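A.,

Following up on our hallway conversation. Structure tokens first:
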């Protein structure tokens, strides 16, 4: 394979013992805001609730409301049923009577259930909007982000499944092309040969990894060594909010990948960008790359790998949905081939993991998205282990670009517009 990406040269800078050397933590204001709870609708929508401080707070709130709810005295009335009333009653009960589903679970409280979030007396407090209506019809603060253990469950409720998820029959869904994906990852690259990426370069990587005590430091000093010089020639952006995409759930925090790869907007026909904007144009800043299908989430040594995995889970779902929409553009009924055309990656404390996500039709006809771990690497172990991991990252990136370009060209050649909707 011809040379494709050289190891970028960087000047060694003296590390500052300031905020950049400390793992980024939420501010005190944000920590206080995080204690605000979610509206009752959020908890009612979950089929499984993890034991968290917020869950206990909601349980206590409901218990208090139940205990304080006064009994409603039902007055007794003695009325005489006339023959004409009997006929009306028989007619009313014909064919099973009226639909009373809207009264299911009705509790005769005189007072409406109070909003779970107490009004704050602190002025200027920053809150996060969940987009979910509160019980009194107003908006309630709070969104669920990957740092919350409920985040994954909310995605599962919307048919977005994590790696290793088992269905009711104990089956784990993997992409049909998983073998070919795993075969392409270890292909060697000339840019990572021992003569070009030397043992001394590997020691520099180890040193940079040890000093990266914050996520920002890792992104600036560690990640460029992994991605290689070719990365500068690709359509990629960092830390961009996906604020133009339709969310999988209203209460989810907007996805914001540390790094994503896509296509130039003009590469996608304007009518397709218009029809599929909520699926393939990630940002309201429409000049940024579109149709993202390769993602990176990085953490420092003190970061949480479980958070990175949940971030990749959300990123990948958006990418898989984008490719699925392009693949089925103009079709009245979507087709499922079982293949994965997107890959996401996470890096935490020297560990690189690669994941695919593929769409699948459920038994009810809905679209599901299943994430699968492809490989995991210990990049700080040896120079050879780094070369293998970096090659896998770059090979996965090239695969994603090839599939993205192919599906965009296929959609551009299609007559007609989008005929089906995928949530």
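Then the amino acids I'd put at each of the 423 positions:
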């Amino acid at each position: 394979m011809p040379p494709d990406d050289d190891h970028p040269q960087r000047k060694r800078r003296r590390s500052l013992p300031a905020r950049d050397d400390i793992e980024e933590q939420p501010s005190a204001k944000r920590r206080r805001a995080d204690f605000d709870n979610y509206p009752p609708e959020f908890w009612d929508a979950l089929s499984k609730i993890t034991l968290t401080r917020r869950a206990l707070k909601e349980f206590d709130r409901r218990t208090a409301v139940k205990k304080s709810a006064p009994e409603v005295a039902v007055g007794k009335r003695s009325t005489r049923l006339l023959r004409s009333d009997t006929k009306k009653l028989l007619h009313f009960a014909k064919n099973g009577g009226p639909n009373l589903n809207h009264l299911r679970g009705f509790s005769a409280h005189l007072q409406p259930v109070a909003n779970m979030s107490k009004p704050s007396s602190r002025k200027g407090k920053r809150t996060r909007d969940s987009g979910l209506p509160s019980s009194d019809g107003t908006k309630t603060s709070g969104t669920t982000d990957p740092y919350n253990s409920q985040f994954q469950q909310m995605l599962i409720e919307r048919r977005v499944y994590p790696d290793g998820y088992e269905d009711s029959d104990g089956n784990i869904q993997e992409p049909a092309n998983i073998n070919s994906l795993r075969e392409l990852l270890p292909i060697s690259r000339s840019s990572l040969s021992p003569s070009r990426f030397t043992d001394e370069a590997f020691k520099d990587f180890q040193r940079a990894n040890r000093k990266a005590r914050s996520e920002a430091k890792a992104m600036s000093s560690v990640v460029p060594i992994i991605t290689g010089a070719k990365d500068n020639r690709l359509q990629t952006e960092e830390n961009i909010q996906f604020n133009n995409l339709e969310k999988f759930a209203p209460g989810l925090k907007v996805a914001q990948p540390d790094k994503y790869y896509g296509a130039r907007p003009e590469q996608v026909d304007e009518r397709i960008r218009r029809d599929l904007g909520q699926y393939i144009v990630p940002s309201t800043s429409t000049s940024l790359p579109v149709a993202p299908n390769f993602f990176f989430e990085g953490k420092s040594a003190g970061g949480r790998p479980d958070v990175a995995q949940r971030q990749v889970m959300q990123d990948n779902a958006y990418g898989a949905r984008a490719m699925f929409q392009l693949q089925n553009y103009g079709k009245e009924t979507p087709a499922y081939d079982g293949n994965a055309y997107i890959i996401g990656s996470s890096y935490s404390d020297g560990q690189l993991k690669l994941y695919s996500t593929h769409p699948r039709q459920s038994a009810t006809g809905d679209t599901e998205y299943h994430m699968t771990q492809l490989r995991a690497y210990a990049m700080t172990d040896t120079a050879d282990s780094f070369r293998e991991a970096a090659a896998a990252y770059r090979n996965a990136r090239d695969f994603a670009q090839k599939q993205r370009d192919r599906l965009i060209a296929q959609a551009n050649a299609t007559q007609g517009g989008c005929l089906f909707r995928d949530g």
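Residues 239 and 258 are 5 Å apart (CA to CA). Curious whether your intuition agrees with the design.

B.
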